[in-house]
Amino acid sequence: xxxxxxxxxxxxxxxxxxxxxxxxxxxxxxxxxxxxxxxxxxxxxxxxxxxxxxxxxxxxxxxxxxxxxxxxxxxxxxxxxxxxxxxxxxxxxxxxxxxxxxxxxxxxxxxxxxxxxxxxxxxxxxxxxxxxxxxxxxxxxxxxxxxxxxxxxxxxxxxxxxxxxxxxxxxxxxxxxxxxxxxxxxxxxxxxxxxxxxxxxxxxxx
Length: 206
Known about the structure:
Conserved hypothetical protein from pyrococcus furiosus pfu- 392566-001, ParB domain; Helicase, Ruva Protein, domain 3; four-stranded mixed β-sheet; 8 helices
């Protein structure tokens, strides 16, 4: 199957886009919502033109998001009706089971819940509005912004970091004091225990 990157220049309703993951980091969604509110109408339209959502065309001509889930959710929550999309591949002729098999093998999906447990494809929400919060994805996102690791092109790299942190930091710690949890995460990110993770920047010299 040949990948294509064809922008669909007519607006696509965000409500019609199907996610390929179960969770997002709601802190990151909130930050993107806040940034959107600060843009004026003209700047907002320019932003949408420069940030098209990458999708796969699947069975029944449904469009499945393969990146920018946080942006799509933020725009949806802000009442933006439509976005432009870039088609990465056309898998419309596949049946549903084969489609999900290809999506899984190409690492175009991440069907893990807020506890980091893999679920079936039926548990992936049908709309971006159905995605739920994973506090560790929020922590992983803030960790990257704080310089804990470098941005990496590996699929779902932030979720890989989220799972690393999930095994070492209590969720209650995040809920009670996010700043303290982030400080803990920075220490972990700079340790050799994290050397296998995407974007690892190496241990801090002591």
